[in-house]
Each structure stands twice: as C-alpha cells, then as structure tokens.
Amino acid sequence: MKKALVIGGGSGIGYEIARTLKLNDYDVTCIGRKDRDNFDFKYIKCDVTDSDSVVNLFNTVYDVLIYCAGIISREEETFEYNEYELNQLIDINLKGCIRTNQLFIDSCIKNNVQGKIINISSISNKGSKYFPIYASSKAGILAYTKSIASRYEMIQANVISPGVIKTGMSYHETPNFDDYIPSIIKKTPAKRLGNTGDIANVVEFLLSDKASFITGEELVVDGGYSLPKE
C-alpha cells in the first residue's frame, strides 16, 4: 500500500484530498496545526514553520506528498500590513512548501522511491489587486514546482491552482462571503461555485497512471473564472 502525506489535511481541500486518497487505497497521514480528536485519518499536529518538527515527519518514507497548507491575511486589503502576520503567510504558504518538498525529495532519493508531489497554488498566482503578498506566495509555489520537476528525474511534480472554492478559509478571508457568491457564479462560465471535490478529483487524476506523462504543469481548476471576460 502506498503512503501519502497531506500537509494541511485537517480541513477543507486537504481533508477532501485525504478522503479521496483513502478511497484509492492509500495509507494517508494528515498534517495540521490544530489538535484533532477522533480524526478520520492518521493525524500529526505539526507547524510547517518549525524546521525540527518537519524533519521528523520524514522518518516515514512516503510515496506521495500533497502540500495544501495555506493562510491568508485580511489586513492586505486594508494596507495595514502586520509584519508578523505577513511573515507567517510567507513562512506557511511558500517556505513550508519548499521545506517539506525538499525533505520529501531527499527521502525519495535516499530510498529509491519514484515520488509524486502535488502542490496547491491559486489562480491568484498571476497577481491579485487585494492580496498581493498571498498572490506572491502562491506564485512562488508555481515557480518552485516547475523547477523541481525539471531538476529531479525521479519526481513527478505538478501544481493545482484552484479558483473560488467554498471552504472555512473563504469566510476567514471574507466574513460575508455568501454575499459575493451570486457575483462569483455570474463571472464563472461553469455557472457554479467550486467545491473541495473538484480539487480532489484532479489530484486523483494526477496520481493515476493516466497522468504519468504530465510533470511540471499547472492545472487551473476554476470553472473558467479566470478566463478573459471579453
């Protein structure tokens, strides 16, 4: 049975990815910053900004790494930049991704594993008027993933860039998120909001033999939201 590590698997997109992997007979371990009692999967509480704790995760050899940990700062919208909060954003979204990816790659090389990495970015990685730091962190994920796919022949690495997906993070970013849903749907050719299953389905595809010739690519999953409007 192949082993999969889902960083940020405690809720939202990460949890749905973990659930889908389990249905595909993976031995799944989820990582998160919060305590979880009676969780559905193996769960390890770990802060990806803590180098020592992250190193210990890779005492186990994994075949698959999914990185979908991420935070957003509402202060970006107000121009009241809180240095600590913005450092946390870069540390978790980008540096955490790089740190865990490199440790996973080192483990694959050491143990002769043909590893697979899927990093979760965002359609904002092309730039965002309201969340420039968040967008920058997600752009870094895209560039980094393409780089490691080119550099390490034994690693198949790809990026999924979700559009607007309704999760708990949506309401942290925008407490009145429900008020914006009609406008989002109007701008989306698929005429619906995205859900966590839409992302998990693409993960399932990328890990399958049908996607064995795809590496270093970005798959945008947004129902057409980011397409030109005219």
Distance between the termini: 48 Å
Q: What integer value in Å does the Rg equal?
A: 17 Å
**Spatial order of the strands forming the largest sheet:** 3-2-1-4-5-6-7
State the CATH architecture. 3-Layer(aba) Sandwich
Quick one: overall form?
Answer: globular
Largest sheet: 7 strands, parallel
Calculate the mean pLDDT score and round it.
93
- Counting DSSP E segments of at least 2 residues, the number of strands comes to 7
What are the segments in which pLDDT stays under 50 over at least 5 consecutive residues? none
Structural class: alpha/beta
CATH class: Alpha Beta
Could you say how many structural domains there are in total? 1
Secondary-structure element order, as H and E? EHEEHEHHEHEHHHE
Strand content: 15-25%
Overview of the molecule:
- The protein is an alpha/beta fold and 230 residues long.
- The chain is 41% helix and 16% strand.
- It has one domain (3-163, 195-221): NAD(P)-binding Rossmann-like Domain (Rossmann fold), CATH 3.40.50.720.
- It is built from 8 helices and 7 strands, in the order βαββαβααβαβαααβ.
- Helix 5 (132-151) links the parallel strand 5 and strand 6 (155-162).
- The chain is globular and about 50 Å long.
- The N and C termini lie far apart (48 Å).
